[in-house]
Amino acid sequence: MPADDPPGDEPADFNAKLIARKQEWARDGRLLTGTTADPARDRLPPGQRLVKDWPVLDLGAQPDITPTRFRLDIDGAVRRPISLRLDEFLALPQQDSLSDIHCVTQWSRYDNHWRGVASRTLLDLVEPRESARHVLFHAHDGYTTNVRLDQFAAPDVFLVHQWEGHPIDRRHGGPVRVLIPRLYFWKSPKWIRRIELTTADRPGFWETRGYHNNADPWAEERYG
Length: 224
Ligand SMILES: Nc1nc2c(c(=O)[nH]1)N[C@H]1C(S)=C(S)[C@@H](COP(=O)(O)O)O[C@H]1N2
Ligand SMILES: [Mo]
Description:
Blueprint: H1 16-28, E1 49-50, E2 72-76, E3 82-84, H2 86-90, E4 95-102, E5 107-118, H3 119-126, E6 134-139, E7 144-148, H4 149-152, E8 158-163, E9 166-167, E10 177-179, E11 192-198
Parallel strand pairs: 1-5, 2-11
Antiparallel strand pairs: 2-3, 4-5, 5-8, 6-7, 6-11, 8-9, 8-10
């Protein structure tokens, strides 16, 4: 652990060794195959291998978000900011979805069954301003990650609370995490706390540590 408090938004309680190793990977361009693939034809992105289990990866804090502690704020460049309790979130229209996971550390997992609220449903509630172009996600462990608003608004993007018919457990970001299946999985924050719509792009935790801002697995946008 660093001697000084981490600045600003950064996690107070994180795995410094893991972060240093992943930053080294980015510096060295580890795992790059130098090829690209067509998502319409190639289900498995370049340089990925399939796993059957579901690995756990995070900064090491794994906060315990009880229903009492749960809050989901969606604010920033919106006309109607909202702040939802867990019961209010669960009372929104729910959808089932099926998608694959692609993690930048090279594992992919096919056919995950999810249940949750579509990003579209949430965006319709908050009414983004015309100036809104980007999204910055803030999680309970201090983690942040950024995507473009059109990437968040895609029809396969959900805030999920069930995986394979069961509540998502704490290690995987329960009670509620974001799911953006067509980007590397670091763009899918666990223990989501706040979704901030912005006019300017603000890079998140890994994006400021050598990881690609866009993170398309088929273009192998691992680092950059
Ligand atoms: N809040 C939060 N979300 C996070 C992370 C994190 O450290 N904190 N790690 C990201 C990374 S790097 C990955 S690969 C995935 C891993 O999710 P999993 O542990 O459910 O497989 O979560 C992403 N979302
Ligand atoms: Mo990751």
